[in-house]
Amino acid sequence: MSSLEDIRVSPLSRAYTFSDSVYEVIPYLAGRSLCFQSHVERLERSLLLSHISVDINLIVAELHQLGSELLDQDGYVYFQISRGVDQIRAHLYAENLVAERFGYAFQTIFSAQPIAAMLCEDNRWAHCNIKSTSLLCNVLSMNQAQQHGCDEVVMHRGGFLTEAGASNVFYLNDQGVVRTSALTENILPGITREILLEALAASEFRVEEGECDITDFDASPAIWLTSSTKGLLPLTKIVGSNYSFQEKDQNYLGIKKIFTEAVEMHLAAVK
Fold first, then answer.
1. How far apart are CA 94 and CA 128, in angstroms?
2. How would you classify the pairing of strands 115-121 and 152-157?
3. Burial of 71 (0-12, 13-18, 19+ CB in 10 A)
4. What pLDDT is recorded for position 43?
5. At residue 236, what are phi and psi to the nearest 5 degrees?
6. pTM strictly above 0.90
7. Which of 57, 108, 238, 241 is the most exposed place for a label (fewest CB within 10 A)?
8. Residue 20 and residue 46: Cα distance in Å, rounded?
9. Which domains does the chain have, with CATH numbers?
10. How many whole angstroms separate alpha carbon 20 and alpha carbon 82?
């Protein structure tokens, strides 16, 4: 492993010229990875859909090596794979390119403090199920939201929820049903999303995946995000809607407890 100051990236790297690269983020809690294999499988899917060829066993070994730097610490491992370096910038890539690999381990404290979000139109490309580094629309929307005192965006297409800028979105409707968008090519299949869905399937809560009308937000007592670095994080408000977080809502508190127990179960299974 090289230090950051020793790494050199060619300006003809396809990650630089075309965002021709994918990435993965794996959370670690007290030094234990959360759903490591699921993250590897999602990375494999992104590579397959992007037609990037790389030895996944080598990637797994490097992920474990990076993860070992988070001994007994909270943090995450970021890992990025690009198609390689061109001889000259060209849309058509050569078949013999050698994939570039870049990753790091980062120690951090995962915040549980609720945040605000802004409602916005989803203008991203149509294959968000690929965890691509091409995130310009997310960047522009989230920085616009920051000007309104928000740390996230909740995106929609034609008035129907897709996802947040860097998270999946869940909410309780006015009947106490947990709702979230169904997985399509427009939505990244979140690992933390799946943890929550699997846990709720074994509970008394009714869950519906499908088209979610953003007008539902106005009557919702709780809307929250799920992601590798956010865990389950409630939204205090959504600029552009009349939603107001009811932090003592018993259904929301029950869901949060179920999620926490599910995460603890996954961590306990880590050898």
1. 25
2. parallel
3. exposed
4. 98
5. -75, -35
6. yes
7. 57
8. 11
9. 4-107 (3.30.470.10), 115-268 (3.20.10.10)
10. 6
DSSP label at residue 88: S
DSSP secondary structure code for residue 216 in this structure: G
Tokens of residue 198, six digits: 């699997």
In sequence order, which residues have a C-beta less than 8 Å from that of residue 242 and are 6 or more positions away?
A: 217, 218
Integer Cα distance of 38 and 51 in angstroms: 20
Q: CA gyration radius for the chain?
A: 19
Q: Tokens for 136?
A: 């310009």
Q: Which two tokens stand for residue 114?
A: 């609720």
Q: Is 265 helix (H, G, I), strand (E, B) or coil?
A: helix
Mean pLDDT of 25-31: 97
d(CA 203, CA 213): 25
Calculate mean pLDDT across residues 177-200. 95
In angstroms, the CA 74 to CA 231 distance is: 12
Read off the tokens for 59.
């990637």
| C-alpha span between 263 and 74 (Å, rounded) | 14
Average pLDDT of the segment spanning 105-118: 96
Phi, psi of 68 (to 5 degrees): -65, -15
Which are the contacts of 203, defined by CB distance < 8 A and separation ≥ 6?
Answer: 254, 258
Q: How far apart are CA 112 and CA 24, in angstroms?
A: 22
